[in-house]
Write a structure and sequence with these properties.
10 strands, binds adenosine-5'-triphosphate, elongated, 2 domains, alpha/beta, Rossmann fold, 6-stranded mixed beta sheet, ABC transporter transmembrane region fold, 588 residues, 4-stranded antiparallel beta sheet, binds magnesium ion, 64% helix
């Protein structure tokens, strides 16, 4: 299901993001080209300079005048080149960060659009790394092309043309050499690119492992896993090291061959030029001309390997993020999807079949109807699929078969945004943003005033513990809300749901036993919240179940029993068994 991403796709994405600054980029390329072309004139006037000097019978003022004239022209060309290059730099400083910013935005929003399944299957750390690398790679790519390859191309073309007028053979030799160089580079880097991709992947693995270990630092400490994690990390970093050395070595071989060729070709060229000079075909100035071009040419084209290497590496690195951008987002709004309109908040699951993997169906022909404003408790053994039911109602996953209706509208046919606006979910494990309490609660309704946020916090029994915090509502809660207790986190999540004030309310009760006071507070808050709403509670506690209109027992992917607590107990079926197993009735 991963799309195959080729270099073209990377180019296409880059070009698309440059469209906005196309003319500016064009101006940069033109300016760099002009600047480079101007620098081509210097050796021509140096030739003139040395020829004048050599031919001069004596050091007369006339000769000096002519020499100074040449120097002035060289000066003007250099200043001209310097100016246009400065202009290009200023433009580049403006356009490149702009495109980089847009690429980051595209990458980020495509990440946000992916399904929960996508995130369940990917290392978060390496995702972040891939995201950040995309723009960096863009910078590398443009830098190599605009500032290195393109000027090199101009210089090469220009100097070959000029040298051609002096000696076709020398000029032809340079040309032939450049062709060899290009072909060599092309094949070397084609061969090398698979190692570059492997090394980019190894790099992402290192990040992934590190961030997984850091996220799980508590587990690492509890189970004395430092040594183990260090070894795992050592292995991954060693994989990376091996690939890097290999890849760099291939590039090095290429460089070695190139520089060897350069040394030889320079020697033979000048050797041949001496012969031409003997025959009177070349002047002293020609040596200045050749030397002026060849030194720069060899020096810069010797780096061609490095330029191409960086270019290929940058493209290989971007591919990983481009792959994510191109990957079809699993859960998408249908074209022309309607907005969900909720009046009574009636919910129907009709013949729902759902599986995470094709190994096992979590829900199989699952049917459940919840009347408007009904309060339903869902119970079942762990792993029975209770949380899954809620995730499907929120359309975090699409169904394999069947449909889910809210007030008769299929949730797969309305926009996700409108669906999720109508359902307030307090998940089993509440996770908070690394932001202040105020911001965390306000996430329920982002245009709520401070007063409304505080009111919701009061209703959710949060206000007291929040005002006891060092900065009250402005206290940051730590990554994922780590600085709060489990019960406090859940109450903040409830405050958020209160603020959201949606007609359908879902609470996935935490299984971890909260202390009874915290538990009591959460229940109080929730009962108030349920009033006048359709409510579904995945219940693990008897005290919760007793407050609901109806209990649903889920087993083997279906509803096996339905009725009040008393009815189900009297029936002596699955519910009774569950009840008896969890001695004293659930977690009461
Ligand atoms: N993202 C996922 N990918 C694959 N399998 C999953 C995923 N999420 C849940 N499952 C599997 O689906 C089944 C139902 O999980 P679910 O979370 O719905 O159980 P639950 O009834 O809520 O259990 P609990 O009472 O422990 O919270 C489990 O067997 C679980 O392993
Ligand atoms: Mg669950």
């Amino acid at each position: 299901m991963k799309p195959r991403v080729r270099a073209q796709d990377v180019w296409r994405l880059f070009l698309k993001h440059r469209a906005e600054v196309f003319w500016l980029e064009f101006a940069i390329i033109a300016a760099v080209g002009i600047g480079e072309a101007l620098s081509l004139f210097a050796p021509i006037y140096y030739k003139k300079f040395f020829d004048t000097l050599y031919d001069a019978p004596a050091a007369t003022p006339d000769v000096a005048q002519a020499l100074i004239h040449s120097l002035l022209i060289i000066f003007v060309f250099h200043v001209g080149g310097w100016l246009v290059i400065r202009v290009a730099t200023v433009l580049w400083n403006y356009t490149t960060p702009l495109v980089m910013r847009d690429l980051e935005r595209t990458g980020f929003s495509s990440l946000l659009g992916h399904s929960t399944k996508f995130f369940a299957n990917t290392f978060v750390g390496s995702l972040i790394r891939k995201l950040r690398r995309l723009s960096r790679s863009y910078e590398d790519v443009t830098e190599e092309i605009i500032w290195n390859l393109w000027p090199l191309f101009i210089f090469v073309t220009g100097s070959i043309v000029v040298m051609w007028s002096r000696s076709a053979l020398i000029s032809g030799a340079v040309l032939a050499w450049l062709v060899v160089l290009t072909v060599l580079n092309h094949y070397v880097f084609k061969y090398k690119s698979k190692f570059d991709e492997a090394s980019a992947k190894a790099d992402a693995d290192v990040t992934g492992l590190a961030s997984d270990a850091v996220t799980n630092i508590l587990n690492v400490k509890i189970f004395g896993g430092q040594g183990y994690e260090r070894r795992l990390f050592a292995d991954r970093t060693d994989d990376l090291r091996r690939l890097q050395t290999l890849s760099w070595n291939i590039a090095e071989v290429n460089q070695t061959i190139q520089w060897g060729l350069i040394i030889m070709i320079e020697f033979f060229m000048l050797y041949y030029a001496v012969g031409l000079w003997q025959k009177g075909l070349l002047t002293v100035g020609d040596f200045a001309l050749f030397q002026g071009y060849l030194t720069v040419l060899f020096w810069r084209s010797g780096d061609l390997g490095k330029m191409v290497r960086r270019l290929y590496e940058a493209v290989a690195q971007s591919k990983e993020m481009v792959e994510i951008i191109k990957m079809p987002q699993e859960i998408r709004d249908r074209r022309g999807a309607d907005v969900l309109k909720v009046k009574n908040a009636r919910i129907d699951f009709q013949d729902v079949v759902f599986a995470y993997t094709n190994k096992r169906k979590v829900l199989d022909q699952f049917n459940l109807s919840i009347r408007p404003k009904e309060k339903v408790a869902i119970v079942g053994s762990s792993g029975a699929g209770k949380s899954t039911i809620v995730k499907l109602l929120m359309r975090f996953h699409d169904l394999q078969k069947g449909r889910i209706l809210i007030d008769g509208q299929n949730i797969a046919r309305v926009t996700q945004e409108s669906l999720r606006q109508q359902v307030a979910l307090v998940p089993q494990e509440s996770i908070l943003f690394h932001r202040t309490l105020m911001e965390n609660i306000r996430y329920g309704r982002r245009d709520a005033t401070d007063e409304e946020v505080i009111q919701a916090a009061k209703e959710a029994r949060c206000h007291d513990f929040i005002t006891d915090m060092p900065d009250g509502y402005n206290t940051p809660v730590g990554e994922r809300g780590i600085k709060l207790s489990g019960g406090e986190r859940q109450r903040v999540a409830i405050a958020r749901a209160i603020l959201k004030d949606a007609p359908i309310l879902v609470l996935d009760e935490a299984t971890s036993s909260l202390d009874s006071e915290s538990e009591h507070l959460i229940q109080e808050a929730f009962i108030e919240l349920m009033e006048n709403k359709t409510a579904v509670v995945i219940a693990h506690r008897l005290s919760t179940i007793l407050k609901m209109d109806r209990v649903i027992v889920v087993d083997q992917g279906q509803v096996v029993e339905s009725g009040s607590h008393q009815e189900l107990l009297a029936k002596g079926g699955t519910y009774r068994k569950l009840w008896e197993i969890q001695s004293g009735g659930f977690l009461e």
